[in-house]
Amino acid sequence: MHIPDGILSVPVLAGGAALAAAGVAMGLRRLDDRAIPRAAILSAAFFAGSLIAVPIGPTSVHLVFAGLIGVMLGWAIFPAVLVALALQAVLFGFGGLTALGVTTLAVAAPGALAGAVFGPGIRRAARPAAAMWRGALAGALAVLGAAALVAVALVLSDGHFAPVARVMTAVYLPLAAVEAAVTAFALGFLARVQPGALSPLAVRA
Amino acid sequence: MRVHLLIVAALLVLLAPPALAHSLRVFVTAEGQMVRGYGFFVGGGRPDGAAWRAEAGDVTLATGTTDGEGAFGFVLPGPVPGDIVVTVDPGDGHAASATLAADRIGGAASPPVPAPGGGPTVHARPAAPMPNAAEIEAAVESAVARQVEPLLIRIEEMDARLRVTDLVSGGLAIFGLAGIALWLRGRSR
User: Fold this and answer.
1) Does domain B20-110+131-163 have CATH number 2.60.40.10?
2) Which residue of A55, A163, A197 is in closest CB contact with B45?
């Protein structure tokens, strides 16, 4: 998910940046005072957690938490992810600054979508187990969506579909399984101890 | 509520052992006409089976896939027009490049050239002729390249490593931004 400079074409970079900017603007508008500390905590978790990766074949993968953050922040996932990715690029050289828009879009858009689709069901779930199952789906589909968006950006820039699809399938399917387990665990824990934390608008339980 | 969020955030960060950081880098060096190196992930791990290519300007010198240790290597086909850029590309967008400067290429294996003024005219021991200046230079460059390679590797790894201070700084910067956002909202009301 950390795309360096010089990989993507200019139209892809520009399109990604424009869409990410729109998402960030939408996220900031919907971020209320009580959700700001939550966004900071999740952004910090993403910042530190996505630095931790495991080599798989030709590449290495890290947890993304897109489904989890999307459920808990809604559209505010965009600014949360943007800040974390920008700091990773500046402090560690992970990913290029020119690709920040595409990377933000790839992580945040599926997360926001997963939050919109699965969030209401997770918040309405009568039992934590039901929230966990929906959370697992949100986590897995969000990371697969992120991989698909990165693949689309690479193919639009380079035009070679087969090698990108092969690597993405081999690498991100196992990651989706792990991401599903982590998201299910985190959302199940919050559903038991603090259900109000599952709402992007920070509604107190 | 924030305590629970902090618990979840801390667990998320700790959930992924073995902890290996992630960002591809490339190390490349030359010994004579042989160019070799490897890709590595910051913090540990090597890309196994990633595509690599070596280019000098617009000319592609060699291509291949990395071995299980992330390594690549090739013999220069001849004189190169300038710096060599080796790119390792796993195919998922995590490509990385390293540049081998032209003045580090091919020195040890330069074809011997006659010393100015020709060779020595008197051979005290014909069975073991004195090496000429070019041969001595090539041998020295080869030996130096071998000696400094571990240092170059070490420098590359130190340059690429994750620093705890940067990690903490990043986390604190995020919370600082949140504080600024809250302050700005408070002022606007």
Assistant:
1) yes
2) A55
